[in-house]
Amino acid sequence: MKRPRIGIFVSVAAWLALSGCAGTGAKSSVEGMTLEESPGDLYVNMASAYYQRDQMDAALDRALRAVAEDKKNPRAHYVLAIVYKRLGKTQEAEKHFSEAAKLDPTNPDLLNAKGTILCVRRDYDGALKEFQRALDNPLYKTPEVALMNAADCSRRANKPTEAERFLREALTANPQYAPALMAMAKRSYEIGSYQDARGYMGRYSRVGQPTAEALLLASQIEQRLGNKAGAKALAESLRQRYPDAPQLMQL
Asked: Into how many domains does the chain fold?
């Protein structure tokens, strides 16, 4: 008599039970930036709070006020850039990222942002240099963010081995960093390492959001491993949670 595959069902159960708030916690700053006293910091703090609550109109208003109050405050330009980026206003975001970087050229968060802009422009070598400059700062509190961006940029540059190395370094810096766990699950799936992919998805399910992309990947992994019941349950969860998601076309 075969033993039941306990790990499979625990993993799937974790996915199906994952609440919409799992893995998220209130942050006291925007994208890892802390605040110090200055005339515009009150509005920076308010913009950050609204951003975290997804109240983007209010976040934009306070960020604009922060810049108007103190044009020499790099945090004000940074939070405004983050809001503009979220709103899809790329040119405005780049303008304020650049201004923030000029005002505080050694800030690792700003170097990371600059690297992201260069990567979008397909200046992959330049982007990786900026990510490395951010990582060279021993005071950088969230190196996993720059490492994840470096991995994504390497992937865009068609360097999958280098991308995987950055992902592993990101998880060494923060083993519970959800974006890197998801990316490693996807990478493992693509190269046929389905057990490893399941392991990464199991870790992701404890800290990340059950997005349509995540549920699809989890279902595909279970299908490859022969767990038809688990794959079906995950696919059904995807249909129920995201009835209009394009990922449904891949089931």
From this structure: 3
